[in-house]
Amino acid sequence: MNTKHNTRLPRLVFIFSALTLERLGYYGFRAILVLFLVQATAEGGLGIATNDAISYFGIFTMLSYLLVMIGGFCADFLLSRINTILSGAVMSAIGLFGLYLSFSSATLLWPSLILIALGTSFFRPAIWALTADICRGVGAKQDGVFTLLYLGTTIGALISGLFVGWTTQLIGYSGSFIPLALFMLLSGGLLFFFPHITQTETHGRPSTRTLRSVLTPILIILFACGLSCTFWYVFDEISNQLYPLQQSIDLGGLTHAIGPFLTSFLWLPLGIAWIFVPVNSWLKLAAGILCLVGASQVLTSALYGNNDQLLVQILVIEVLLGFSEVLIAPVIISLVSQYGSQRFIATSFAVVIFAGGLANSLPHFLGPMTLTSLPTIISFLLTATTIILVSVGVLRTLNSRKITSPQSEQLKQ
């Protein structure tokens, strides 16, 4: 047992490093894709019209969420976690190499984009499933582990912007795809060539099946999907309506940087705190929802109230949004890891990722969030918070009961 706990940390460090490298390559690619598509062919681009390039980007994003189910299924049933991760990294790298060559042969564009979408769809659920395998049995401490993994995602996204800004000046947009592809290969190679990682996978079957053991993973997935979709819809809508307010204050772009930097600084201390001082996961979700409700209320005041304290209101909204993201996004994944079916864990993660992607489509069906829709959304979130708090009490009551089997009673006698 001690050996298992001693080897858990280096495995997680390698997973953190691999995820950071993969996200660096992925977000770096996303940052320059449209610019590469619209750049004139004489300058190394494809010379595509701006509207068409944006449409291509939207289709690619949609594919990234649709294909994630294939990646989760492969990680659970067809390939091992490691092989799925490596396959995803290799497919993304080949796709990026294909984009580099597409400036001379435009027919490579869509096959390359499909490979990248498929690669990230393989990588994400598989690496989360591998993390769940390593951390199985540690309970709410998984909140801290997945929070730190989100830190890796944030670091990769932040570095990617700086990195491609530098490489595009040196070797252009098409040339920047080459180092991004190398990052992808390195992310898969880190896990594949580290032998201890491959020994952590556990695909054991449950010894007994009860109604509770079958229903709990299903209910958890449904809950996680609903909360993930709703949270990202409200989060993005608040951010979109906050943007004009940030523009109205001339601080040299500082108001736009507050949110990302604040969130970046929250991941590490809270991730460590959740590991050493585990707090009930459901209570974190409730606190995160309340932060989101508070942000929407302050936004309403800023949009339709007195603007004498607009800067303070913007700062409060950014702080509340930052805390809501840190308290909700990784904890949703952690709950799926804690209560989901071990046999279907990668597929479960894929379903939650897909639900989060649906949040991008909700504004097209529900319309943008307005003053009249805010009370409905707030009521829904407050109701969800109440349900979560009641669920905490019910789960604690169930866990406190000692259920003994007839065999154990006979042994006692």
Automatic annotation (TrEMBL):
Gene3D superfamilies: MFS general substrate transporter like domains. SUPFAM superfamilies: MFS general substrate transporter. PROSITE patterns: MFS. It is found in: Cell membrane. Keywords: Cell membrane, Membrane, Transmembrane, Transmembrane helix, Transport. Residues 1-199 form the Major facilitator superfamily (MFS) profile domain. It is a multi-pass membrane protein. Coiled coil: none annotated. Pfam families: MFS_1 (PF07690). It comes from the Bacteria. PANTHER family: PROTON-DEPENDENT OLIGOPEPTIDE FAMILY TRANSPORT PROTEIN (PTHR23517:SF15), RESISTANCE PROTEIN MDTM, PUTATIVE-RELATED-RELATED (PTHR23517). This is MFS transporter.
